[in-house]
Amino acid sequence: xxxxxxxxxxxxxxxxxxxxxxxxxxxxxxxxxxxxxxxxxxxxxxxxxxxxxxxxxxxxxxxxxxxxxxxxxxxxxxxxxxxxxxxxxxxxxxxxxxxxxxxxxxxxxxxxxxxxxxxxxxxxxxxxxxxxxxxxxxxxxxxxxxxxxxxxxxxxxxxxxxxxxxxxxxxxxxxxxxxxxxxxxxxxxxxxxxxxxxxxxxxxxxxxxxxxxxxxxxxxxxxxxxxxxxxxxxxxxxxxxxxxxxxxxxxxxxxxxxxxxxxxxxxxxxxxxxxxxxxxxxxxxxxxxxxxxxxxxxxxxxxxxxxxxxxxxxxxxxxxxxxxxxxxxxxxxxxxxxxxxxxxxxxxxxxxxxxxxxxxxxxxxxxxxxxxxxxxxxxxxxxxxxxxxxxxxxxxxxxxxxxxxxxxxxxxxxxxxxxxxxxxxxxxxxxxxxxxxxxxxxxxxxxxxxxxxxxxxxxxxxxxxxxxxxxxxxxxxxxxxxxxxxxxxxxxxxxxxxxxxxxxxxxxxxxxxxxxxxxxxxxxxxxxxxxxxxxxxxxxxxxxxxxxxxxxxxxxxxxxxxxxxxxxxxxxxxxxxxxxxxxxxxxxxxxxxxxxxxxxxxxxxxxxxxxxxxxxxxxxxxxxxxxxxxxxxxxxxxxxxxxxxxxxxxxxxxxxxxxxxxxxxxxxxxxxxxxxxxxxxxxxxxxxxxxxxxxxxxxxxxxxxxxxxxxxxxxxxxxxxxxxxxxxxxxxxxxxxxxxxxxxxxxxxxxxxxxxxxxxx
RNA sequence: UGGGGGAUCGUCUAAAGGCAGGACGGCAGACUCUGAAUCUGCCUAUCUAGGUUCGAAUCCUAGUCCCCCAGCCA
Length: 761
What we know:
Layout: H1 9-19, E1 28-31, H2 41-56, E2 60-65, H3 75-87, E3 97-98, H4 103-115, E4 119-122, H5 126-132, H6 150-162, E5 171-174, E6 189-193, E7 207-209, H7 211-222, E8 226-230, H8 237-247, E9 255-259, H9 271-279, H10 294-300, H11 304-314, H12 325-339, E10 341-343, E11 345-346, E12 349-354, E13 363-368, E14 378-383, E15 386-390, E16 410-413, E17 418-426, E18 432-440, E19 457-458, E20 460-462, E21 467-474, E22 498-505, E23 517-520, E24 524-528, E25 540-545, H13 554-558, H14 575-588, H15 590-599, H16 603-610, H17 613-624, H18 629-644, H19 656-667, H20 673-686, H21 690-696, H22 704-717, H23 719-726, H24 732-743, H25 749-760
Parallel strand pairs: 1-2, 2-3, 8-9, 10-23, 12-18, 16-19, 21-25
Antiparallel strand pairs: 4-5, 5-6, 6-7, 11-22, 12-15, 13-14, 15-20, 16-17, 17-18, 21-22, 23-24, 24-25
Helix pairs in contact: 2-11, 7-8, 11-12, 14-16, 17-18, 17-19, 22-24, 22-25, 23-24, 24-25
The structure holds one RNA strand.
């Protein structure tokens, strides 16, 4: 797996953590599949991310089976997961880990939570628990068992562990808050009783931990620093943190981050749906080459590198997206293009007879495996009077733009001779059953002495020497881009996702080994199937067709993404009305109106700020302390309020008088607008005298001479821009101004602009 | 409806407040012993409305739309 330098929000986080030397600068990630199904292409993104991050930061990545639910998990899946991760190049640190190996430690921590009063045994039924949880609109209600004594809880928990109770008799719950706005935090279940055989721990445990309890502990126990999961777990993070915080201290203390999972068009990704495809016989198994499972994709002939390339291409972000299947196809073709030898095979044969070729003569042509690199090896290909070409390559009445064979036309047979079609042979219904051609004997090897160029080069095989093999032609499994958008996804199955043909391959290919890949020229990339091939009789899976800009498959031209309507036209909003309402509110309040009119403030702006009484009072006090009114209002509302991020003003270490002094700095021109913005952050964090912060940051004292020097430097560095500006491209003022402003951080933009315009003339 | 997230070309993604960039795709051309590959050029975007600023995708305000959460699954 390559180390890619690409950055995204996770590398930003890790960079920041390392800069702060959190966890001693170490990075440990993990890939934690549940062994209850096969890995699919969606997982390849997570694998590439977790293992890639570990490599990129010289850290480590664990492979961990999240096996906390014995009823769905199986050791077969464990093996397939290991194989698939390794195939993708994932090199996990140490042995494969199993959540089940941590059951003793998890249980000990559960007893600790009980002892500390943070967990209790609940003996309600499933229904009662569900009812007690409330819903989005109603808070939950406390369980009647919520206040059991520590001793009773401990006793019950130990008997649960000992196997004294039947499934469902009790559960262990965290004692958090049944009225919590996040439903997950309403006393979540930690353990349930499940008398089931575990594929690994056997019958040692009659109780099993729930995901929300187990997962953070698995991370903490393994020393994971960055626990990366998919977006749907965002809500779980609060509980993740609760568990970590109440079972620690942990060092490193793991943090959960969420990214958008990979969704691909023309396929389904959920384990449930994949299982259904297998169980109901819509495909031939988990490794059916049409399946998006890694096993299926691998058998289809797709190289792991193509999947990693795709992961790289789609990036890592935090919003749900549906990746165009064309991107995957691009990655596959790009990889195979570089990887595969070129061979000759005909899928839908049309016999062709060379009327001027001696009956028994066999020419043995040496054709390079790589047309662009003859030195990279070649093979012998027989050529005889009776040949086979692709039926598609002949048209009796060719359409406009037709370059291939037609009556009276000449084409080149790849690596062999030029042939001209003289006539056709017909069957009983008048259909074309064969072609009569003459060969130009001087064009051996594919070039004519007179230098003429046929309009097309066709693939072909020797009719007698060709080896018939089964070819399985795969296409997309579904006929719509979002099969699971609505209704039953099964009805969108593409009936033509698999068609079988007899390929007539050149003799050299009869010796292909399972897993060997070739490009069948002008047809696509094929791989000798690893399951059904037999010695001397390979079965060919078509991995993907070649890109075709001549005939356009109907599905490519017509299928418009049936994606969810992302309406971009929002309602015309009532922003103007709102402004008016704020202004009216100010007018209606005598005191506010006096304030506005007395200080010359915009009523709408004041009204908006006044909707927060604390801010209004702060503004009043600041005005009292001598703050310039207009500027004070703006800064308070636009910059300070933003920095609050929802916190109340009083939590900041600044007071109205200090704020007034700050605003005066700006009003007096001592601090330029941009400089003031730079001061704001540190000052709001620290409090005290804003002027001192500004001085420490060196934001005072950008004098006129400094500005002139900076402007001159910029003009010297950007001669192109300068001349374009002088030629009339006035928008380049911005670029030059920006460059100058970067040189004199904190200078007053208006001054710099003036200096610039002076200098430009 | 409560909570948590998200919104940039058709698609996927970049842009410490400074020329909205790249890739896929599409279109056109060059080249070609694969109508492939390769090469060139072109196309298309900041959810809406206000505000702050010399300058806003980015900061502020209000809205709109989309996704996730009410399993003893993960």
